Amino acid sequence: MSTALSWTELRTGREDLASLLAFRRSGLSDAERRRVRLGALLVLLLTILAVLGPAYLGGDTPRARSGQLLALLPSLCLGFLVLASFTAVASAGGREIVPRDQAVAFPVSTVTEHLGALILAPLNIAWIAQAWALLGVTSYALGPARLWAYELPVLLWILGATALAQVVGWMAEGVRRGPHGIAAFRTFLAVLAAVAAALVVTGRLTPLLDRSPTAQILVIVLEGQARGWSTWAFGVVTLLLAGAAAVVVGALPARWALSRPMREELRLESGRHEARAVPGSDFTMLLRIDRAAVWRSVPLRRGLTVLAVMPGAVALAGNLEWTMLTILPGLVASGAALLFGVNTWCLDGRGALWRDSLPVTPRAVFASRSAVLLEVLLSSAAVTLVLAALRAGRPTTPEVTALVCSTLVASVQVVAAGMRWSIARPFAVDLRSARATPAPPIVMAGYSARLAVVTTVTGLVFSGLAGIDDIRYAVATALVMLLWSCLRLQRSARRWDDPVTRSRVISVVAGG
Fold this sequence. Notes:
Blueprint: H1 7-26, H2 30-56, H3 66-90, H4 110-120, H5 125-142, H6 147-176, H7 181-202, H8 205-210, H9 215-225, H10 229-249, H11 251-258, H12 263-269, H13 282-295, H14 298-318, H15 328-340, H16 352-356, H17 362-389, H18 397-424, H19 441-465, H20 472-497, H21 499-509
Helix pairs in contact: 1-4, 2-5, 3-5, 3-6, 3-9, 3-14, 4-11, 5-6, 6-7, 6-9, 6-10, 6-11, 9-10, 13-17, 14-15, 14-17, 15-17, 15-18, 15-19, 17-18, 17-20, 18-19, 18-20
């Protein structure tokens, strides 16, 4: 019997996806459904503002620097594709519409998995922010005249690039699951990083970007604004067909990847770990357990690697100044917390019952988990800043002080928020799966937006303080912010001390 992909399977996969989404919605309470509708409405309104605001509020056309912005549009479109691809590769092709352990009882096809990953891909603040940036830059540069005509190609590119990124993600996962696939994939990444570094060092990156195929998107955009309808229509139809083809073609590598054994996950689960000497204190023992839970998890290791390297590589290629680097630690910390920090007790899974039976105080358990989360955030931010600093020039003392303060403040802010959310809204999640997330996609989108806003504001504050010669302003501001975050962390620790609250959290995370 042929196992080739058929149109019938595509149609069945679409119907199964609708059923699964309805199944997920049926588990929401009325209040949660209202929050989801309000969140979707808010995103829609913000998207409309991102399109119309720069067009109508930017003054008369031609706008200042509109030519420079249009010249950057092809590179921005390419950057969207690259970052979407790295996100898909790090999450093994996408997110799970149904968790792996729950999907055992349901005949979820690989086509349904692929379509579900596409549907859930936009539920990410990084994806949304990049989409808003592309739409906003285009509308600011060209103004309100024939806005629908020149924004349509950009929107189609965003959707098509997302589908193409999923194809890349599934292919990468298929390679990783093959014999010697992990070594082959890491070798490929090392070669790719070396080539990218050589292009940056030799100054050939900019000429290469100028010859990017995404330059055709700029042509289509300008033709739509200038009423060149024949060229515009051909380009729009091409983008539409390319996006649809990427959706269909993506089902093939998805089937290939999902039919192969999960070698990296299985190797970790079946591996042997030699016993070490008993540590000298309970806190040290808890730290050892929590660190192992993080670094032995496949999705966490992959995600942390991408979060640490990608922003630093972008800053390295863009040659950012030191005053702008203060924004990076907050963004990295926000992304790292979304890997597990917003539901940090899910790291224990069913082992939470065993953890709770250990003869240690609840405050020691809380302190250990908070310390490990802070370690992860600071180490990820450190890698990013080291890469970004390579081409940032020689910093001044106020710039270094502001950067250090921004890193510490943003990391502690994220830890305080993550520990509070972990106690308030725990979820049962199996983080053994390479495509798992610590909370449902809708909840993750809300967490992502809130963290991004807070850490970005913090980065902007210290970016302004970096321009002041007196470092005491940055230090004093950091102390005040750290004190406030520590007070919030202390309140969460007191909640964890409550046995009723602790039992509720443990019963939820161990119930998966």
